[in-house]
Amino acid sequence: MTSVHSLGFPRIGHKRELKKALESFWSREIDEQELQSRAAQLRDRHWQIQQSCGMDLVPVGDFSLYDHMLDMSCTLGAIPPRYGFAGGQVGLDTFFAMARGSATQPAMEMTKWFDANYHFIVPEFHEGMDFRLSSERLFDQVKEVQALGLQAKPVLVGPITYLWLGKEKDLNAEAHHEAQHHHDDSACHGHGAPVGTACFDRLTLLPKVLPVYAEILARLAEMGVEWVQIDEPALALDLPQEWVKALESAYQTLRRDKTPKVLLATYFDSVADHANALKALPVAGVHLDLRRAPQQLNSFLSDYPADKVLSLGVVDGRNVWRADLDAALELLQPAHQQLGDRLWVAPSCSLLHTPVDLEQETELDAELKSWLSFSVQKLDEVAIIGRALNEGVESVAQELAAARAAVASRKSSPRIHNPAVAQRLEGLGQDDGRRKSPFPTREAAQRARFKLPAFPTTSIGSFPQTPEIRKARLQNRKGELSNADYQKAMEAEIALVVKEQERLGIDVPVHGEPERNDMVEYFGEQLAGFAFTRHGWVQSYGSRYVKPPLIFGDVSRPTPMTVAWSKYAQSLTQRPMKGMLTGPVTILQWSFVRDDQPRERTALQIALAIRDEVRDLIDAGIGIIQIDEPAYREGLPLKRKDWGHYLEWASRAFRISAQIAPDDVQIHTHMCYSEFNDILPAIAAMDADVITIETSRSQMELLDAFATFNYPNEIGPGVYDIHSPRVPSVEEMVGLMEKAVKVVPAERLWINPDCGLKTRKWAEVTPALENMVEAARQVRARH
Ligand code: GLN
Ligand code: ZN
């Protein structure tokens, strides 16, 4: 019999119970025991759901109160010394101090989990550190699941992935840096270690960490666990040779007489490059992601060892669409013939990245709903595939027919396919989206039109989203505040923001974005081809969940989205009001994207919709328009060989949206980071007249890349760290600009904060911007 299983289930709960439990615990409304008991209830429920969906094995250890990488660090005893862990079992206070900081210590660093919108706590390593089994959590949870009479399959982050995703830290530097709040600088992550930091190679820790893994496996064997899932998604990245070699020796070391069988799980991309190594590995099975990389199957099927299981992920764990079961079965056919019972079927990866249960979406129309599948439904799909393989397709004829009908309706529905959009895309042909004139011509035209001073000042868009603004929006949604009154309230807010910027003397003001709940949702709600769920939450990090829009059909813009607000704001000032849009790549990146056409095609459709908005803004007299692309870099594929293609369509999508701007209309873009080292050519290819980036936290160091590359257009390097409530002084901002002037020609520099101000309070923003404007005056006087 082919077994069906899942690699992981969402932890947040149908009604976001985990978030509520955590926040109650953090605010001391409930105690630890209550938190743990609510968490246990969630785990129980999730296991029972998985069992009733027909899973033969259920994952254990995938549940976490915050993050599974952090749990792994605790299990391995990898606690940075600054948290004062004295040995024994890692307690909840230490766990949350690492996750969120404590009264005396900042939190550990957090970063994106591969190319997902999930963020994990980055393990910290120092030279000579010891690892010791320091948590009973996994074993306790295995007991819980065994008590339910289910087959537990514990899940661990594998040693290679665990070490690869961590960072080396210099303990001596830590003490020194702490004073300056510059933790990250003491890290040396593989390549490009900052000069002056004593570095070691974290791979040298492998022999120290393996005994703990061995101990865990031995304990699990004693408990009667038959299978353990060890996740090694790092294999889908471009791993250096020594790391691949280390993989072989690591799993040799872990092979003991008494251990459970190991299923080595890979996902998010192809591991075909390592096919031979994986086949030779002393593990009992391998899992492959056939959604992201179906073509890798052949490399594994040829000479697949006769004693190994092959688990194939054919149901998309990263997206919300109902599976094409016929296609999945066809893909599995050769594997089933060759492997028989040694073929397992699963979602492509952990379901952590999809919402919990479609059944809760009672407000979606039946047709749209029939195209979707959330975690629970995905397990149903896996189970149907399993039954088709084990009992023949006749046994699930009805289910297959229903899936087939959904696929067919998606292929032909006029809600999805809009001929006008298709025609517009065809019309684009090979158009690369270039503006009419090259940058120097545009720059001259813009200077003549706007007559801005040197070092013009601006902001990134949003101003404080006060409780009153949020309340008005909520009331309007509930129908307690009429649209007319809501509009009046927002206009009052805009008037206030414009007046304040006039008073401050900001050269290029903004309207402040009070009307926006979220920079993607705001546009998604007004574009055709988008849908929104009520409960479609996925974990972003800790207790922070996001509810991404669904892009289900051809995208177009029925009516203007921002024009009225911008026009109103412009009517209040003589200064050039900056219009504010979200760019195509960012809208794509922060949504669930349709899978029936290439991402780049969807990006182009969004680009054309944004272009329509650009046109209308220009017609309404707006001369400066910012198209935000904060998610541009995170769209990069996992493997470098795929970067070129992505960057080409991503920069083209941006250009297509900005292309129609005449020479004297100034296009800005904004990105919330400044690690552009390896993608600067693609940033330059976007050809925005002005780019604003985050540089204040790196003391402008990151600007060097722009200088070395000779970045041709104008740049606004952030001088004010908006992530902190601190108000930077005039001297500090002048100092930062002095550094910028050394590497970028003065006439191309702008002065602005790092990012939008929506999370700040007015009491912080007003003095900070006052200082910023004063800094601009002083910098102008000096240059
Ligand atoms: N214009 C947006 C704002 O200021 C940009 C936000 C972002 O870059 N994430 O809020
Ligand atoms: Zn930003």
Walk me through this protein's architecture.
It is a single chain. With 783 residues, the chain is an alpha/beta fold. The chain has 28 helices and 23 strands. An eight-stranded parallel beta sheet has the order 1-13-12-11-10-9-6-2. The protein has a five-stranded parallel beta sheet with strand order 18-20-21-22-23. The longest helix has 22 residues, at 483-504. The radius of gyration is 27 Å and the shape is globular. Bound molecules: glutamine and zinc ion. Glutamine (GLN) binds next to loops. It comes from Acidithiobacillus ferruginosus. Keywords: Methyltransferase, Transferase.
Percent of residues in helices comes to 40-55%
Give the structural class: alpha/beta
Strand order of the largest sheet: 1-13-12-11-10-9-6-2
Give the CA-CA distance, first to last residue.
Answer: 77 Å
Strand content: 5-15%
Number of DSSP helices?
Answer: 28
Give average pLDDT, whole number.
95
- What Rg is obtained from the alpha carbons, in whole angstroms? 27 Å
Care to count the β-strands? 23
Unreliable spans are 176-198
The major beta sheet can be summarized as: 8 strands, parallel
What small molecules does the structure contain? Answer: glutamine, zinc ion
Shape: globular
